[in-house]
Amino acid sequence: MAFAGLAVYALYAASTLDITWARLLVGLDEGSKFLGRMVPPNFQRWELLVEGMVESIQIAVLASAVGLVLSLPVGLLAARNLMPAWVSGPARLFVALCRSLHPVIVAILFVKAIGFGAMAGVMALVVASVGFVSKLFAEAIEEISLKQVEAVRATGAPFFSVLFYGVLPQVLSRFVGFAVYQLDSNLRNSTMVGIVGAGGIGGTLFAAFKRFDYDFVAAILIAIVALIFVSELISGRVRKAFQ
Amino acid sequence: MSAALDREWTRFTPAERMARFAVYLACVVAIVWSIRTIEIIPEFLYDAPEQMADLLTRMWPPDVEYYPTDIHSALVETLHIATLGTILTLVAAVPLGVLAARNIVPWWPVNSAAQLLLVASRSVNSLVWALLFVAVFGPGALAGTMAIAARSIGFVGKLLAEALEETHNGPIEALRAAGAPWGAILLKGYWPQVQPAFWGIALFRWDINVRESAILGLVGAGGIGVALDDAINYFYWDRVAMVLVTVFAVVVIAEILVTQIRKRII
């Protein structure tokens, strides 16, 4: 029943979007030409490639570091079991706002505000990191056992001691998990923000695309996939070290 | 006896401590290296607050009249791209997910080949997929739909394969003992067990696709991103603000919708 509905919708949507077999067939033909021009990948301009990749990695590292440091307090403020509603409400709204716009759109705004270059990319990914990590962090805090918090509070400990000895030990291991995940995700996105001028390999990729240097495009894509593959391996190892 | 009593207990083994220390060290080194070598143009930073204020004043008030003329049709196109892309994904990801599940196809070359396809699909960002498909199909919604589908197959296929691997073997063995053909085993043995997970994954991905399809227009792959790109290129910042408000509203509505539907079906 649900599948029939989806099939009917798919036909309707395809007709409104002007998707036809003829276009698909033409596309397949173009696609084979396009693939033909991508092979073999051209690594001659490897200096440009390495420069872009290094900048992407720097953007991801800095954005993750700043983003994680900021999301600790923001996540605490957004946790409903620790903060009164008038604090957690606005904090949650702020987090939702950070999360709702795609990093590339945020990057456009920062490119306008602070100019072209890696700085805009870092800022855009900081916003994305705060949006994502604070939300998960706040949810993790909301799930903690309140017994330990009460025990610490019963000894007359001030607020920050409650935080450091009652709350944080319960959630820090999960925070490490979020941090590794976010670094991975920032690395993926840092290869993209360059398309709107915010630094990294994306700019090189887009320029090569516009100049129809499809063999160089293929080389860049291979490099990006390799980078992400390596980062997944490393993050798996890091997770294991903190289990 | 006394040796056992005197032993000093620590929470982690030396190897674990070394591993953690290595991770901390690597983090510090990476951050310091990034700060010292990243290329930042200080002249751009001096007037950043002014530029920011300028941007905000130009954005306010959002150009509401732009909505009925340009944004609305682009928005509908975006939603179609996201939904149609998700449906295409489901069609392609189900066979791949089944092939990647080790308990259904107990032959590792097939599993690995399917996994490789899924990883390749996942590791390329949807914006890059869109670039490729714009080169193949020309600018427009077709390229956007294909890009969304190409990016999502890896995501949905991976989660589906994991759900399939977690199914209980009891019903499968019962069906097999009754002499059911493999189609019946899939349909009556596995499908009822993974059905809630399947719809959950599909909804989750649709929610992500609504966000992603909003930017595909930046590279010419149709949808509301085209309206955004036009407004930015002409420096109509009040129109940009209107597009952003629209995207924000749609994303929030999509999220609420998905949570409500999830509650109903799971």
Please tell me about this protein's structure.
- The complex is a heterodimer of chains A (243) and B (266).
- With 243 residues, chain A is an all-alpha fold.
- Chain A has a single domain (48-241), classed as MetI-like (MetI-like fold), CATH 1.10.3720.10.
- Chain A contains 10 helices and no strands.
- Chain A starts with a helix and ends with a helix.
- The model of chain A has no long low-confidence stretch (mean pLDDT 87).
- The termini of chain B are far apart.
- Chain B folds into 2 domains: 2-56, no CATH class; 62-265, Orthogonal Bundle (MetI-like fold), CATH 1.10.3720.10.
- Chain B has helices at residues 2-6, 14-37, 42-46, 48-59, 66-100, 108-123, 126-137, 141-165, 170-177, 182-213, 224-233, 237-265.
- With 266 residues, chain B is mainly alpha-helical.
- The longest helix of chain B has 35 residues, at 66-100.
- The mean pLDDT of chain B is 86.
- Chain B is built from 12 helices and no strands.
CATH topology of chain A: MetI-like fold
Helix content bin of chain B: over 70%
Tally of separate helices of chain A:
10
CATH topology of the largest domain in chain B: MetI-like fold
Summarize, please.
Chain A has helices at residues 2-16, 21-38, 46-78, 85-100, 103-114, 118-142, 146-154, 159-190, 201-210, 214-241. With 243 residues, chain A is an all-alpha fold. The two termini of chain A are 44 Å apart.
